[in-house]
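Q: What residues go here?
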């Protein structure tokens, strides 16, 4: 079994301050025994406006945020799922919302760019979001080998598209990590039920680090970072403010469950 941790933050507009908070939480999670830690979406910056992140966007492979992730993974000998950070896009005035994965030697082993962008008006509120104004969408999924099992990544709004995850199961998905920044309103309505549904329908573990609290730009995020097992049981949940939750990933239990309850083998219709 492996202990994993989902880090919860209430990130602000200052990258340096956010990185200090991220390292503090990572260090505490490692002290608790975590071998795999995941940061939330926008861990490095939650700007005062949507274009602040464009100003601090890094080129792929270099920059202080990427250096921080690599150095921290190596320093604490821990695998880090780097939430999302702004990486330069192929068009001006936009970024890619990139989730970078580092092994316990500080080596980058994967990159996933958020595919589904949050362009919505939240019902019964004045909240409107147009993520595509400043973010360029990715165009593929990510499932990789790790010492803990086959690990896949999705980000926040991706969670609402179940067809996105079915092909991951065909690639051997064991652990699904979903860095997020769910709003307080949408989170209260849908966060837990969506996470548990993805765990149940794909018979996989779900590690869900979320932003949680009040932000300097006026936003409020839902928090409730959690770890969910393949049966849909919430192993741990952290409600609000900075902190982390831990849960055990037991691949042998998962394999036995998939043998005794072979729902993935009973599919009749397949997503490409």
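A:
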């Amino acid at each position: 079994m492996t202990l994993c941790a989902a880090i919860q933050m209430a990130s602000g507009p200052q990258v340096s301050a956010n990185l200090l908070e991220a390292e503090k939480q990572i260090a505490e999670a490692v002290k608790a025994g975590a071998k795999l830690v995941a940061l939330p979406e926008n861990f490095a910056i939650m700007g005062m406006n949507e274009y602040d992140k464009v100003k601090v966007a890094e080129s792929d492979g270099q920059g202080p945020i990427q250096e921080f992730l690599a150095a921290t993974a190596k320093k604490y000998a821990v695998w880090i799922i780097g939430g999302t950070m702004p990486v330069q896009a192929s068009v001006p005035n936009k970024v890619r919302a990139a989730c970078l994965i580092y092994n316990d030697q500080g080596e980058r082993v994967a990159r996933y760019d958020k595919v589904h962008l949050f362009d919505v008006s939240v019902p019964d509120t004045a909240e409107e979001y147009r993520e595509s104004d400043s973010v360029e969408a990715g165009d593929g999924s990510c499932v990789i080998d790790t010492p803990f099992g086959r690990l896949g990544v999705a980000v926040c709004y991706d969670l609402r598209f179940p067809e996105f995850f079915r092909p991951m199961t065909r690639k051997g998905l064991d652990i699904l990590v979903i860095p997020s920044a769910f709003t307080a309103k949408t989170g209260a309505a849908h966060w837990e039920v969506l996470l548990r549904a993805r765990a149940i329908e794909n018979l996989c573990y779900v590690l869900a680090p979320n932003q949680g609290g009040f932000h300097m730009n006026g936003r409020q995020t839902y928090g409730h970072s959690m770890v969910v097992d393949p049966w849909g049981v919430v192993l741990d949940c952290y409600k609000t403010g900075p902190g982390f939750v831990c849960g055990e990933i037991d691949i042998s239990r998962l394999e036995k469950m998939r043998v005794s309850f072979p729902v993935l083998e009973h599919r009749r219709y397949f997503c490409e």
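A: Context that may help when evaluating the design: The chain has a mean pLDDT of 96. Helices lie at 15-31, 52-55, 64-76, 166-170, 184-202, 251-260.
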